[in-house]
Amino acid sequence: MLLGVNIDHIATLREARKINDPDPLEAVFIAKRAGADQITLHLREDRRHIHDDDVLRIRNSSVLPLNIECSINPEILEFILKISPHRITLVPENRQEVTTEGGLDVVANFERIAEITRTFREHCIEVSLFIDTQIDQICASKEVGAQMVELHTGTYANLHLMLNSNLSYTHNTIESLKIPRSELKTHFLDSISSLRDGAKEAKWLGLEVAAGHGLNYHNLAPILQIPEIIELNIGQSIIARSIFTGLESAIKEMVKLIKPSERNAFRLD
Ligand code: PXP
């Protein structure tokens, strides 16, 4: 299993003061040292965390492959094409959202996504699509020519949180999950089945399969048991833990969880 570390929230912290500290570029070197396989970041249209300059500096560092998440906005895509990262992941974007809500609608934007995919692949840049697990979205992802899909684990993660924490008793209750507690377990199990089925279908079609969103140190186990998933992109939980333990340690802990071989190596030490 490969780990892409999403470093957006290092920039979120920087933007709280609009200065140049902490610098997301420093995180790239730490992630490499800690055993991460890839840096993932989201260049949003509103540049609310990562800026163009961050992308340029991180790309130039060349320490780890760079996976840039972005919307299908032409201005952003033109910039990223020039940067030439190893992969783009197309995501839906909505200015009001706190984080990426729901997967990309590949069916509704078929022609546009096919054109973007063609252009990026012609420039030897891999294309991944961040989608929900519906079969029509998976099939459309294959038909537009993407090499990879990243399955949206947000619903799964939210349900895990509601079942295993006291979140529903705080002011941060997740609105979309205001369902009777007795039904949460069923929805949770359904969300795992749909990720499992989606991953199987995507692999069968010849797509590589990644997953991400809301994954943390407590909810990974069922996802790790889906053999078709080869990569996880994880951000918020790692950056949150790093506040208390340091970034290198937070990434190493995640690496230990998701890579059995590293776990064995750790035991032997
Ligand atoms: N993958 C994609 C496509 C995302 O949009 C995000 C959030 O930016 C992540 C993974 C990481 O999600 P989280 O920060 O919840 O781990």
TrEMBL record:
E.C. no:
2.6.99.2
Query: So where does 1-deoxy-D-xylulose 5-phosphate get bound?
Result: D8, H9, R44, H49, T99
What is the protein name given in its UniProt record?
Pyridoxine 5'-phosphate synthase
Which compartment or compartments is the protein found in? Cytoplasm
Top-down, what is the taxonomic lineage of the species of origin? Bacteria, Pseudomonadati, Campylobacterota, Epsilonproteobacteria, Campylobacterales
Active site per the UniProt annotation = H42 (proton acceptor), E69 (proton acceptor), H213 (proton donor)
Q: Which organism is it from?
A: Helicobacter winghamensis
Question: Which keywords, in A-to-Z order, does the entry hold?
Answer: Cytoplasm, Pyridoxine biosynthesis, Transferase
Designated gene of the protein: pdxJ
Which residues does this entry assign to the site Transition state stabilizer?
Answer: E150
GO biological process terms on file: pyridoxine biosynthetic process
Q: Does the keyword DNA-binding apply?
A: no
Q: How does it assemble?
A: Homooctamer; tetramer of dimers.
Catalytic activities: 3-amino-2-oxopropyl phosphate + 1-deoxy-D-xylulose 5-phosphate = pyridoxine 5'-phosphate + phosphate + 2 H2O + H(+)
InterPro entries the UniProt entry points to? Aldolase_TIM, PyrdxlP_synth_PdxJ, Pyridoxine-5'_phos_synth
| Pathway the protein contributes to | Cofactor biosynthesis; pyridoxine 5'-phosphate biosynthesis; pyridoxine 5'-phosphate from D-erythrose 4-phosphate: step 5/5
Q: What does this protein do?
A: Catalyzes the complicated ring closure reaction between the two acyclic compounds 1-deoxy-D-xylulose-5-phosphate (DXP) and 3-amino-2-oxopropyl phosphate (1-amino-acetone-3-phosphate or AAP) to form pyridoxine 5'-phosphate (PNP) and inorganic phosphate.
